[in-house]
């Protein structure tokens, strides 16, 4: 099944309510007047163009090369694993520092995850500027509101620390084992990670759909929907209960179905945050899932950036509840048909 993209014209003008945006005066502050939380939140500031209404692009969204993204990920994800393996190889076994205590491994991979995330966000920002963003002729991307800057930064910190710790615990970190293909990383690790992502998407779909249907759960989830046009790091913005469910419980459930080693979990979490960040970027291109695209496309179950972008624009009415695939949206009839990226 081949994929093409088309563009459709909007026949209605956006309402005044649609144009309302939360106050974000922190963005206008000079660099030296921003507080530490605002400096950290500024990592997610894309080019000024992304926050201004743009003329309508008459052309269809281009199909972005997923192989180029796979190449980028293949360079961005392995460095910490390679460094870890080289350390064990070159530092003598007789040395006290030959193996890494779990605390040292935790600190190393947490810092590595932060660096990877910053580089990834800048990579995504480049394409937000290059391709433009969906719906930009009506409303551009939203800044993080003043009142949520601290909340966003704390959410990111919790996410980084929890996901790193989860990988060490769920993967059963052993200090005498270094990353190695065929040992701590299966030769079939991509198949395992694909299965893990699908299992995670099932549990996320169930929880996410319930959030949009049950009033109490919607109150928990509504903070994440404070923006209809998010940016990459706003994918992590959430309330306390949602953070517990998404950062801890959903990955735990997926890991019980498809167990991963510590080093496989590192690869999986890098792919996971990449998909979550691109899904909240609004990049105006047909940009499918870097792992699952070819497997799911023949069934119309593949995910692209527009799917989750539409989910945010729809708000509480929901649709497109999956964040890694459209498998369960297709099965349970909760797909919102794409507006600009159309599959034939």
TrEMBL record:
It is found in: Membrane. Residues 196-334 form the Fatty acid hydroxylase domain. It holds the Pfam family FA_hydroxylase. This is Fatty acid hydroxylase domain-containing protein. GO terms for cellular component: membrane. One of its GO terms (molecular function) is iron ion binding. GO terms for biological process: lipid biosynthetic process. InterPro entries: Fatty_acid_hydroxylase, Sterol_Desaturase_Related. It comes from Adineta ricciae. The chain crosses the membrane at residues 71-91, 103-121, 148-173, 185-207. It comes from the Eukaryota. Keywords: Membrane, Transmembrane, Transmembrane helix.
């Amino acid at each position: 099944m081949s994929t093409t993209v088309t563009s459709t014209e909007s026949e209605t003008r956006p309402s005044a309510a649609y144009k309302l945006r939360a106050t974000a005066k922190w963005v206008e502050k000079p660099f030296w007047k921003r507080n530490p939380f605002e400096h950290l939140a500024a990592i997610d500031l894309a080019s000024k163009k992304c926050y201004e209404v743009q003329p309508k692009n008459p052309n269809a969204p281009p199909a972005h090369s997923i192989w180029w993204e796979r190449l980028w990920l293949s360079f961005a994800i392995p460095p910490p694993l390679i460094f870890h393996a080289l350390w064990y190889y070159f530092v003598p076994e007789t040395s006290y520092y030959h193996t890494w205590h779990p605390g040292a491994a935790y600190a190393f991979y947490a810092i590595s995850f932060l660096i990877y995330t910053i580089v990834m966000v800048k990579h995504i920002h480049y394409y937000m500027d290059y391709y433009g963003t969906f719906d930009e002729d009506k409303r551009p991307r939203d800044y993080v509101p003043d009142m949520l800057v601290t909340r966003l930064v704390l959410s990111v910190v919790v996410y980084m620390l929890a996901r790193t710790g989860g990988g060490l615990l769920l993967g059963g970190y052993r200090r005498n084992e270094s990353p190695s293909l065929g040992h701590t990383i299966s030769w079939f690790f991509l198949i395992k990670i694909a299965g893990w992502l699908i299992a995670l998407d099932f549990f996320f779909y169930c929880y996410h759909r319930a959030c949009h249907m049950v009033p109490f759960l919607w109150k928990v989830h509504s903070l994440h929907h404070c923006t209809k046009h998010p940016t990459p790091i706003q994918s992590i913005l959430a309330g306390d209960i949602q953070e517990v469910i998404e950062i801890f419980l959903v990955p735990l459930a997926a890991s019980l179905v498809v167990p991963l080693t510590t080093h496989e979990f590192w690869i999986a979490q890098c792919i996971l945050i990449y998909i979550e960040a691109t899904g909240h970027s609004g990049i105006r291109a047909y940009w499918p899932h870097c792992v699952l695209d070819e497997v799911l496309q023949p069934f119309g179950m593949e995910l692209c950036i527009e799917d989750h972008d539409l989910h945010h624009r729809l708000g509480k009415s929901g649709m497109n509840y999956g964040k890694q695939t459209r498998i369960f949206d297709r099965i349970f009839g909760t797909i919102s048909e794409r507006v600009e990226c159309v599959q034939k």
